[in-house]
Amino acid sequence: MTSAADPAAPRSLHDLTLAELQRALVGAGLSPTHARTLWRTLHHHLATELAGHPDLLPPLQRWVAEHVGADRRYFTHPPTVAADLASTDGLTRKFLLQLADGQTIETVVMGFKGRHTACLSTQAGCAMGCVFCATGQMGFVRHLRPGEIVAQVRHAQLALRETGHPGLRNLVLMGMGEPLHNYDAVLTALEIISERSGLNLGPSRITISTVGVVPGILRLAAEQRPYHLAVSLHGATEEERSALVPASRRWPLADLMAACRTYCAQTGRRIFFEWTLIAGQNDSPAQAERLGQLLTGLAAHVNLIPLNPTGGFAGTATQLDAAKAFQQVLKQAGFPSTIRQRRGIDVAAGCGQLRAEKARETSPSGVK
Length: 368
Ligand code: SAH
Ligand code: SF4
Description:
The chain is an alpha/beta fold. It folds into 2 domains: about 60 residues, Orthogonal Bundle (DNA polymerase, domain 1); about 280 residues, Aldolase class I (TIM Barrel), CATH 3.20.20.70. It is built from 12 helices and 14 strands. The structure holds S-adenosyl-L-homocysteine and iron/sulfur cluster (SF4).
């Protein structure tokens, strides 16, 4: 469920939790207070240049000079912006960020009624192969490191700051990749992001979305991780679901629902279920009824997402009338649901779509 990292390889300072930073600095003869100062400079003030930073007293400046930079133990360089698109409705801004090895990932900032949510990527590409998803269509490239997930939040905060907005309110791990396939890096990143004296986006503002990686869901429950959980279903029978979500063959629907019940019982929390509505495929009232039966007894909220069209999938989005009819059936079964607005569709705001578009622009034969 995780990536093996070379312990000797240079690390981003943004990979480190506060405890790790304290260990590193105390090991070099500095104090935990020095570590807290450096932490605030990095994660609260969002400094990108540490050398000469006015908050860092001489001992910290010396540590930075010795340990941070090219060919040193740590680096700080943020990802560069390969594309920055604002939707015509002004509510969505989508960044394509280029990482140190040239890989690109997407981070989306959505604003609604003055509140902003960032949608973060957890992997470059994705191994799960959901047929309607642009990221699934490109395949797996690599796991993101904690610092590469943290860097997306920093980037979103700085972008909001520059445009005079208050900071982010919520985070959703619904960009490129499967968070629970990169469990350790994702959970480390969330620990860093939610630390109060730094970025301070607490667990109640963070939602992890999974395609249904059963061991990961059970581990979240066993470890009593305090984040919200969203599970992507899209089909309420094994046959219908695995046609859209090949990962369902590895973690069958029956096992997934059992894991969800365990999760609710162990954590006392409800689960959000994601359902991408595809016209004529999974949007009939009978399918809504089966979904209601599947969820019986669970504390659940359903998010209905009309399909964002992607290059590699011929399906189309369910029209609003049919989506409302689906919602009505769920309501009668006792389940609240939300039809998610398809904002920012003109900036390819579906997960993985911008990277796929950029790849098509630069390669005459198209992506993959
Ligand atoms: N891998 C995780 C999180 C990233 S995808 C997961 O699958 O849950 C986040 C959500 O976007 C999922 O519910 C996914 O099914 C949905 N999604 C992906 N591509 C989409 C598209 N083209 N149109 C609508 N929803 C899509
Ligand atoms: Fe991966 Fe999620 Fe896309 Fe499926 S929907 S391919 S799990 S990113």
